[in-house]
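Q: Please design a sequence for this.
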């Protein structure tokens, strides 16, 4: 089965436009007969990125989490082989960012219903392994809470949920430490890590002249503050970390590390 125009570069809008290349792993780029033929040929795994549209400080676009979800899903699918990436669920649970304009938030039950319908309908068309790929912290609790019900709803298809939020941060912090970047600078939201990643993916959308440090303490130790106060009370500009230290090359290393770890976990899960 031939590919029509080769690979498309990961972008904030992966849908094809006139003259754009077709990405063979992107479900939404393919025709229905093409999807059916791939499923028949063993393409029975589908990654589902689950991001957000929310404030990311004064310098990053609100689509940051979803842009990374798309990029991660595309890269993991290609590395895995015979795997699709579904259209990103580009709005998540972001009530904690609603003090900042541009944030759009789903109710927890709305996100759970959308994820259930994604998995249910994909399974109906022959996908046997569904991989949830959250790239926004606020999505982890509602996804974890629904897993048992979701797995029952789509059986015999399998649902894979590979990481927790702390594991995701730890991967990035290990890379940061090699460059002498502290955890406080690396941050957990719009700090050095996310700024570096977006410089690598969509540098034209990063306004480094507006980047400024926010809360630079240990995010994990300060979790109770974030629970008991509003986000703006803890970090007035919405940033956790220091984005002024962002670096494109380090951003690429963050991405490569995350892709490799996710591929390894998924390959192991698919063997079971």
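A: Design:
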């Amino acid at each position: 089965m031939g590919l029509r125009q080769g690979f498309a570069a990961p972008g904030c809008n992966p849908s094809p436009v006139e003259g754009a290349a077709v990405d063979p792993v992107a479900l939404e780029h393919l025709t229905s007969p093409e999807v059916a033929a791939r499923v028949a040929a063993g393409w029975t795994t589908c990654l589902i990125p689950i991001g957000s549209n929310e404030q990311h400080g004064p310098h990053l676009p609100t689509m940051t989490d979803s842009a990374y979800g798309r990029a991660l899903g595309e890269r993991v699918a290609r590395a895995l082989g015979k795997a699709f990436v579904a259209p990103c669920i580009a709005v998540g649970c972001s009530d904690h960012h609603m003090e900042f304009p541009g944030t759009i938030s789903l109710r927890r039950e709305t996100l759970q219903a959308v994820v259930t319908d994604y998995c249910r309908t994909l399974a109906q068309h022959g996908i046997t392994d569904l991989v949830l790929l959250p790239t926004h912290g606020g999505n982890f609790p509602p996804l974890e809470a629904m897993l048992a019900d979701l797995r029952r709803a789509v059986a015999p298809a399998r649902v894979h949920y590979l990481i927790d939020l702390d594991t995701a941060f730890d991967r990035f912090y290990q890379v940061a430490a090699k460059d002498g970047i502290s955890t406080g600078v690396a941050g957990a939201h719009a700090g050095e890590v996310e700024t570096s990643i977006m410089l690598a993916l969509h540098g034209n959308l990063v306004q480094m002249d507006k980047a400024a440090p926010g809360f630079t303490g240990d995010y994990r130790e300060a979790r109770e503050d974030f629970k008991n106060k509003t986000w703006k009370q803890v970090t007035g500009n919405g940033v956790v970390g220091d984005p002024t230290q962002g670096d494109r090359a380090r951003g690429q290393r963050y991405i490569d590390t995350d892709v490799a770890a996710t591929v390894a976990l998924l390959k192991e899960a698919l063997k079971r």
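Q: Thanks. Anything notable?
A: The radius of gyration is 18 Å. DSSP finds ten helices and four strands in the chain.
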